[in-house]
Amino acid sequence: WLRGTAARGPANISELIPSLLKSVSALAQRYRVKLDVAPGVAGLPLVAVHPVALKQILLGATIAVMRAGDLKRISVKGSACDTCVEMRVEGAGQLREPYASIQSDEDLQSTLDLAERCGAQITVERTDDRIAVLVQLPGVQQLPVLVLDDNSETRRLFERYTVGTRYRVIGVGSLPEALASAERVAPSVIVLDVMMPQMDGWEVLAQLRQHPLTADIPIAVCTILTQEELAFALGAASFLRKPVSRQSFLEMLDQLTSLRAGEARQLPASSSRDRAGPAPRSE
Question: Mean per-residue pLDDT for 35-39?
Answer without folding.
Answer: 93
